[in-house]
Write a structure and sequence with these properties.
117 residues, alpha+beta, S16 Ribosomal Protein, Chain: A, 5 strands
Amino acid sequence: MVAIRLRRAGSKKRPFFRVVVTDSRAARDSSFVEILGHYNPRSRPAVVQVDKERLDQWVKKGAQMSSSVRTLVARHLTAPPAAAAVSATAETVIMTRPAASADREGGAASAPKTEQS
């Protein structure tokens, strides 16, 4: 039987999971047929990215989702979280650089001149 389940990756005490299609008799971190997405529980909010079309295709073929994958799909893939869109916009604002100032271009000439009588 084919199963859709989580495969652990990441280092010690820093878990990161891949959603994979694998033979149900295979060990948790052994070989797999296809990677459908990933899940990072350490980020806030948790990041879940799964190819929904491929997931549906495998389920139609008879693959069984594990209880943890079923829960992830039910909780995180029904609607995209609004917080992710807000944080992406905030990152864009933070990452923009100000225009280069004249001081860096050898710019004593750009200093305001005052007239002295």
